[in-house]
């Protein structure tokens, strides 16, 4: 385990919702092996999330009402920033993201402190449920178009956001709902010229996920496409960004 002097001033934010007590403690313990400050935002969880974390040195924001991942994630990042975090690393509470991948994110951030560091699960995509993998491929193209970058896993929730990003990027409340916040950040960061850095991570599905994903491939993908379409229409469809998404331009 790194010493305090070696650790990065990073906050890890997790958003448990329902039926994640089987995984949440293990994920938090894994995160604490690499990062001192872990913030858990319980988004209307009714299965004992707070009790499951008893005795661990974590900050817990326990909300009775479920408002959705996007809004809670935005709130968690803002809270971590207010606490003085220089960066915020986000990962799912259900075990899909491996906390032992955290050092790779910290290394990428050290190499490029201004970059938004994005996890990519491309090597393990064959292990994903078919509907989830198909929706990711579909979403990757449209989000790449909006961001003006070629993205290979635009919907991966394991990311590291540097605090400097928020001085140049603002996500409107309407784009923070459900699963659209992470998409909106990518598009607005790409538009603002924020550098992107990529980290290969493991996608753990078989044997780890104890409940179905809250992501609904049909309706949530349509919501994301709607946010992307609105973003592009307001900007004249960004033809150069389309060519970048198609791989014609770099």
Architecture blueprint of SSEs:
Blueprint: E1 10-14, H1 21-32, E2 37-43, H2 49-52, E3 59-63, H3 69-82, E4 87-90, H4 102-111, E5 116-120, H5 130-147, E6 159-162, H6 181-191, E7 196-200, H7 217-233, H8 239-245
Helix pairs in contact: 5-6, 5-7, 5-8
Could you characterize the architecture of this molecule?
This protein is of the alpha/beta class and 250 residues long. The chain has a single domain (10-245), classed as Spore Coat Polysaccharide Biosynthesis Protein SpsA, Chain A (Alpha-Beta Complex), CATH 3.90.550. It has helices at residues 21-32, 49-52, 69-82, 102-111, 130-147, 181-191, 217-233, 239-245, and strands at residues 10-14, 37-43, 59-63, 87-90, 116-120, 159-162, 196-200. The longest helix has 18 residues, at 130-147.
Summed up:
The chain is an alpha/beta fold and 250 residues long.
Properties at a glance:
250 residues; alpha/beta; Spore Coat Polysaccharide Biosynthesis Protein SpsA, Chain A; 7-stranded mixed sheet; 37% helix
Shape, please? globular
- How many domains comprise the coordinates? 1
Strand tally:
7
CATH homologous superfamily title: Spore Coat Polysaccharide Biosynthesis Protein SpsA, Chain A
| Architecture (CATH level 2) name | Alpha-Beta Complex
* Unreliable sequence segments: 1-8
Strand order, sheet with most strands: 3-2-1-4-6-5-7
CATH fold assignment:
Spore Coat Polysaccharide Biosynthesis Protein SpsA, Chain A
Radius of gyration: 17 Å
DSSP summary: helix tally: 8
- Mean pLDDT across all amino acids: 87
Portion in helices: 25-40%
Described by strand count, sense and barrel closure, the largest sheet is: 7 strands, mixed
């Amino acid at each position: 385990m790194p010493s305090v002097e070696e650790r990065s001033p990073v906050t890890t934010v997790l958003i448990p919702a329902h039926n994640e007590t089987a995984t949440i403690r293990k994920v938090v313990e894994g995160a604490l092996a690499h990062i001192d400050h872990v913030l858990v935002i319980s988004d209307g969880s009714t299965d004992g999330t707070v009790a499951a974390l008893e005795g661990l040195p974590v900050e817990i924001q326990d909300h009775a009402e479920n408002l959705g991942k996007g809004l809670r994630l935005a709130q968690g990042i803002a809270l971590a920033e207010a606490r003085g975090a220089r960066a915020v690393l986000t990962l799912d509470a259900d075990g899909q993201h491996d906390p032992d991948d955290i050092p790779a994110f910290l290394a990428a951030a050290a190499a490029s402190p201004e970059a938004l560091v994005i996890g990519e699960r491309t090597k393990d995509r064959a292990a994903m449920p078919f509907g989830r993998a198909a929706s990711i491929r579909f979403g990757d193209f449209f989000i790449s178009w909006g961001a003006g970058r070629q993205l290979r896993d635009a919907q991966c929730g394991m990311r590291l956001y540097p605090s400097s990003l928020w001085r140049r990027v603002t996500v409107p409340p309407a784009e923070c709902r459900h699963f659209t916040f992470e998409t909106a950040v990518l598009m607005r960061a790409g538009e603002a010229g924020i550098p992107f850095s990529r980290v290969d991570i493991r996608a753990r599905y078989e044997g780890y996920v104890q409940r179905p994903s809250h992501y609904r491939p049909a309706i949530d993908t349509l919501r994301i496409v709607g946010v992307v379409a609105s973003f592009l229409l307001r900007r004249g469809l960004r033809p150069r960004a389309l060519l970048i998404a198609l791989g014609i331009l770099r």
